[in-house]
Write a structure and sequence with these properties.
CATH topology: Rossmann fold
Structural class: alpha/beta
Largest sheet: 5 strands, parallel
Strand content: 15-25%
Number of helices: 9
Shape: globular
Radius of gyration: 16 Å
Number of domains: 1
Low-confidence stretches: none
Order of helices and strands: EHEHHHEHEHHHEH
Helix content: 40-55%
CATH superfamily: P-loop containing nucleotide triphosphate hydrolases
CATH class: Alpha Beta
Distance between the termini: 25 Å
CATH architecture: 3-Layer(aba) Sandwich
């Protein structure tokens, strides 16, 4: 980012356990570029404030930061990204808010910004969450019921690419690679 702009930024969003992290890591590997996370950014912020890093606290903190100032939140994220990113491409994982999506577009920090939505059914997401040990089906339902989790449903309307997250993750990654022309 010598001139402050990336050639390519792929931003991956979706609901809890939609496969967005696996897709982001897979496409990052295919592009040989780093993967950074909004979740990691929120965790670092929580640590700096002396807050717990449990899901509910992180969701509440993220919602507060975005709701109070989506442009400031996004600017802080991009500033941190610029400190560690020196390549021509990056994959950003964990987009949940339309306002952050718009702020990323407005920031014009990349020559090409692709917003990818991993659209995955509730049942598949719940099974994945339980299988990876995030908690019970009831705990997933509670987490899913928080206001922050409904926001990801609006991403489909602003995404450049919508992927079928009910498919096996390897298929989803292959579909994305094909859609962006690296397959």
């Amino acid at each position: 980012m010598a001139d402050g702009r990336l050639a390519l930024a792929i931003v991956v969003g979706g609901g809890l356990a939609s496969g967005k992290t696996s897709v982001a890591k897979g496409i990052g590997t295919a592009l040989a570029c780093p993967v950074v996370s909004f979740g990691g950014f929120i965790r670092r912020r929580a640590r700096s404030l002396g807050l717990s890093e449990d899901r509910a606290t992180l969701q509440a903190l993220g919602a507060h930061l975005v709701d109070s100032d989506p442009v400031g939140f996004t600017s802080s994220f991009i500033a941190e990204l610029r400190e560690v990113q020196d390549g021509s491409a990056v994959v950003i994982e964990g987009l949940r808010h339309v306002s952050v999506c718009q702020a990323l577009r407005d920031a014009a920090f990349a020559d090409r910004l692709l917003v990818v939505m991993v659209k995955t059914s509730y049942d598949v997401r719940m099974r994945r969450s339980v299988a990876r040990g995030d908690g019970t089906a009831e705990e997933f339902a509670l987490a899913e019921g928080r206001a922050i989790e409904s926001e990801h449903l609006r991403l489909e309307a602003v995404a450049d690419i919508v992927l079928d997250g009910d498919q096996p993750i390897d298929t989803v990654i292959r579909d994305l690679a094909s859609a962006i022309g690296i397959a």
